[in-house]
C-alpha cells in the first residue's frame, strides 16, 4: 500500500484519507446513503458498521436541533 509522509514524518495511507473524508462527511450531516455511494459500499450496513462511531455526535446534534425547534414553537 502506497504511503505518503507528512511534514511531521507521519505515514498517511490513501485509506486513512478515505476514512477521514467519510467521517467528516457524516459529521457535517451528509446523509449516510450519500456517503455509502461516494465510498462505493454495496450495502448501507457496511458504511454504518464502519462509521458508527460518528453516530453519537450526530444524535446529539439532532436532539439539539429538535430542542431549538421546540423553543421557537
Task: Note the overall shape.
Answer: extended
How much is the radius of gyration in Å?
A: 16 Å
Kindly report the spatial arrangement of strands forming the biggest sheet. 1-2
Strand percentage lies at 5-15%
Helical coverage, percent range: 55-70%
Distance between the termini: 54 Å
- Give the number of DSSP strands: 2
Low-pLDDT sequence parts: none
Mean pLDDT: 82
The arrangement of helices and strands along the chain is EEHHHH
Please tell me the total number of domains: 1
What's the short version?
The protein is mostly helical and 73 residues long. It has one domain (3-72). It has helices spanning 14-27, 32-39, 44-51, 55-72; strands at residues 3-5, 11-13.
Note the topology.
Elements: E1 3-5, E2 11-13, H1 14-27, H2 32-39, H3 44-51, H4 55-72
Antiparallel strand pairs: 1-2
Helix pairs in contact: 2-3
